[in-house]
């Protein structure tokens, strides 16, 4: 019977971890949106500056992207952090499903 209690305890821990991870979702989504906004805005502003300065049109996009490379890095980090977050949530949910299956099996066999 103690095994059933141990599995129930593990389920509670996984549920707590899912709740904790779930609370991070909004912050990570906001960080990704802000990083994307900052990058796109920097490209647009720099492109206009370069156009006004008389740079050849064919070079403007590459130069603007090069000038915004740090913002691109921040954008990629934000995107990958969000992907990793959702992967952790899936992992925890799979773990929870496994523990629940074991719990049901132990409960059924202990009667």
Please summarize what this structure is.
93% of the residues lie in helices and 0% in strands. By secondary structure, it is mainly α.
Describe the structure.
There is one protein chain. The protein is mainly α. It has one domain. Helix content is 93%, strand content 0%. The chain is built from three helices and no strands. Helix 1 packs across helix 2 and helix 1 runs antiparallel to helix 3. The protein is rod-shaped, with a radius of gyration of 24 Å. The mean pLDDT is 93.
Cα distance, first to last residue? 10 Å
The amount of helix comes to over 70%
Give a short account of the largest sheet: none
The count of β-strands is 0
Structural class: mainly alpha
Outline: rod-shaped
Tags for this entry?
rod-shaped; 111 residues; 0% strand; mainly alpha
Q: Could you outline the blueprint of secondary structure elements for this entry?
A:
Blueprint: H1 2-52, H2 57-67, H3 69-109
Helix pairs in contact: 1-2, 1-3
């Amino acid at each position: 019977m103690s095994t059933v209690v141990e599995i129930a305890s593990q389920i509670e821990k996984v549920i707590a971890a899912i709740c904790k991870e779930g609370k991070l979702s909004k912050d990570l989504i906001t960080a990704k949106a802000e990083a994307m906004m900052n990058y796109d805005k920097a490209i647009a502003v720099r492109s206009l500056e370069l156009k006004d300065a008389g740079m050849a049109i064919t070079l403007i996009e590459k130069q603007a992207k090069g000038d915004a490379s740090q913002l691109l890095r921040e954008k990629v980090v934000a995107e990958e952090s969000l992907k990793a977050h959702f992967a952790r949530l899936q992992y925890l949910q799979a773990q929870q499903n496994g523990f629940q299956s074991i719990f049901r099996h132990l409960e059924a066999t202990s009667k």
